[in-house]
Design brief:
Bound molecules: zinc ion
Strand content: 15-25%
Shape: globular
Distance between the termini: 73 Å
Largest sheet: 6 strands, mixed
Strand order of the largest sheet: 1-2-6-3-7-12
Oligomer: single chain
């Protein structure tokens, strides 16, 4: 027994010696990284407060005035040059620090989702009279990206080395395609690499992709009339919408299987005894190949016209959003994965464990071990072919600059995005801990890139090859329309 204790003790002292030796031989760059990680730990409360404030604001797409301003003020205080209201969007901004190459861009988002106002509690508790909620955790997204950019700025300032960090305040990710306008106006033209992240229920940095997406509101106009006394004089706009939906639902059998099409009827008339003169349906279509998406979209437009013709109504549509699929970059994703391993996952305290267990109980078949929040998923470069079912306007950025992202466990493992569970976790310490994991990983990855032109060159070569030759020309899927600033009004 005594022998055993001695053995353990000697093993422990050997381990601590090895650790000391490791610290002593760590490269200056590794030491800088550790300093950044330590600094972000020190500033945890400050950033948690900012993210909670944005969570409380819960502002919907293109209306994120207070959220955007809060982040801008933080950046100004830190010495960034802030250019606000870019690309025709009042709540968009780009903040810059430093000069010369390389130029590293970091994306931040801060829009909330309609209908997801929920308290930061482990049971369903909607907030009355509040329009939106941070079910996608963009309150954490914007804050972590700003925190990372500030660390990079501190390093640039201290080291005196050349390099520029740009943080992009990107509004209306949820269906508003905010970044598309920023890409279209050339705000990413001088950037070497773009970093982003997203709140998630797991820690992972893969070279995965997303679906290209196009969406529009189809507006049918008919003729109002008494539905019982003079129905023959009316033409129902709702009939137009329903006929269109019927045709689209038939079409599902005759399109590539991996297509996604979904709709909601946003206006369908006011009273059954009035033939509706106006009706509106909001469509999303998605596919990982944007050329296929475009051909499906043409058929959706044809269905709208056919529906109008058959029902004696008129139809017009407004394309509100359109985004590219994400172009994965294995070179950059490998680097991010290595850095996330250095940072580590999310460790719950006792209180957070209780919160997480309660949430886990509500997840049904998706329930997972809450300790998964501490793990980092294995790197899977084969996941280039893996596609998330979602879409993001980061996709457009990734076609004009080599781009890489990561996800961190801001939500209880097994939670889905856009749920009350993800809204709740985004407003308390579980979300905030995941946010700091993201900030640390982004900051030290930017530091690596600032000091390693060879990796930037390699990432760029991979990107050029995947993008398909030098003749690629970016054209926004939403055409030349102006930002749909009122799409949430
Ligand atoms: Zn999101």
């Amino acid at each position: 027994m005594k022998k055993c204790v001695l053995l353990v003790l000697s093993m422990l002292s050997f381990a601590s010696m090895a650790q000391k030796k490791k610290a002593a031989t760590a490269s200056p760059l590794e030491a800088e990284k550790q300093a950044m990680i330590g600094n972000l730990d020190k500033r945890f409360d400050e950033y948690a407060k900012i993210s909670k404030q944005i969570w409380d604001y819960a502002e919907l797409g293109y209306m994120e005035e207070k959220s955007s301003l809060l982040l801008q003020e933080q950046l100004k205080k830190e010495g960034f040059q802030v250019q606000a209201g870019i690309a025709g969007i009042p709540t968009a901004f780009v903040a810059t620090y430093g000069s010369g190459k390389p130029v590293i861009g970091i994306l931040g988002e801060y829009d909330a989702l309609p209908g997801l106002a929920q308290e930061a509690t482990p049971e369903i508790k909607p907030i009355p009279n509040q329009k939106g909620g941070h079910g996608c955790g963009h309150n954490l997204f914007g804050t972590a990206s700003v925190a990372a950019a500030i660390e990079v700025k501190n390093w640039l300032q201290k080291s005196g080395k050349p390099g520029t960090v740009k943080i992009y305040g990107c509004p209306a990710e949820e269906g508003g395609s905010g970044k598309v306008y920023m890409v279209r106006e050339g705000y990413f033209n001088d950037v070497d690499v773009v970093l982003h992240w997203h709140p998630s229920s797991a820690n992972a940095a893969d070279a995965s992709t997303s679906l290209a997406n196009k969406n529009a509101k189809f507006r049918f106009k008919g003729i109002a009339s008494h539905a019982a006394a003079a129905p023959e004089r009316g033409r129902s706009a709702l009939d137009g919408v329903e006929s269109m939906n019927y045709m689209i639902n038939m079409m599902r059998e005759h399109i590539p299987q991996d297509t996604r099409i979904h709709y909601v009827i946003t206006k369908g008339g006011e009273a059954p005894n009035v033939v509706p003169a106006y009706a509106e349906v909001y469509y999303y279509a998605r596919h990982k190949d944007r050329a296929i998406l475009q051909s499906i979209w043409k058929r959706i437009e044809n269905a709208a016209q056919g529906a109008a013709l058959g029902t004696g109504t008129k139809v017009e549509w407004e394309v509100l959003g359109g985004v590219y699929n994400l172009l994965p970059n294995v070179t950059l994703a490998t680097l991010v994965h290595q850095n996330m391993q250095k940072v580590g996952g999310v460790i719950y305290n006792e209180e957070e464990k209780k919160f997480a267990e309660k949430i886990a109980e509500t997840l049904g078949e998706q329930k997972q071990d809450i300790n998964n929040a501490a793990k980092i998923k294995n790197f899977n470069d084969a996941s280039e072919s893996a596609t998330s079912g979602g879409s993001t306007d980061v996709g457009d950025v990734s076609w004009v600059v080599p781009t890489v992202g990561l996800g961190t466990a801001t939500w209880v493992p097994g939670s889905s995005a856009h749920s009350w569970q993800s809204t709740a976790a985004s407003g308390m310490s579980i979300g905030q801990k995941g946010m700091i994991v993201a900030a640390k990983t982004l900051a030290i990855t930017a530091l690596d890139l600032m000091n390693d032109q060879a990796t930037i060159d390699k990432a760029k070569a991979e990107w050029l090859e995947k993008r398909g030759g030098a003749d690629f020309k970016y054209e926004a899927l939403l055409g030349d329309r102006k930002p749909a600033l009122d799409y949430r009004k």
